[in-house]
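User: Show me a protein chain along with its predicted structure.
Assistant: Here is one chain, sequence first, then structure tokens.
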Amino acid sequence: MTHQFDFVLLDLGGVLVRLGGWDQLFAWTNIPTLDELKHQWLLSPAVHAFESGKCSEQEFADRLVQELSLCTSPAEFLASFEAAPTELFPGVPELLLELSSNIPVVSVSNTSSLHWRRFERWNFLQYFHRHLPSFELGVCKPNAAYFHRVLEELHVKPNRVLFFDDSVLNVDAAASVGIIARRTVGIDALRQELTQDGLIT
């Protein structure tokens, strides 16, 4: 199959993996809206430290509870956080199998070793060409340095890469380094985009 890209980069949470826990986390805060909470989460120093592999689970929980002024204990927060990735969206393995037969697919996720162990128990990681999670790269999205590291690891020019993420901040950061970046939420939106690009049928 002929196409203009050398790699497809896929975020996991929100694109391939259903994420829960936001309502519970929101209930523990005084943040006015759920969208604002998600924005603060993406920019959180505690989250970035944990998901870039720079602090322990306990340190992360302690810092996050303090940072967001959560009205819960670190232990209760951590239990909720661990269970946040609830399941794959229906049809993910089948989509990845078809896509990866046409083009190398790379996972590019802000994630921790805690959640990665959860993903390893699900039937989908084997369909990727490579995995470049933030906790292994030592840097998180939406930092542009994350995307520079990805390009270095893959030895590819940015305009030869197609990237999908559910976060506007992450999409904008990828686009700022020249990657062709699009926002999609859930597998149906992803499937539609990939079909339009001729990467799946």
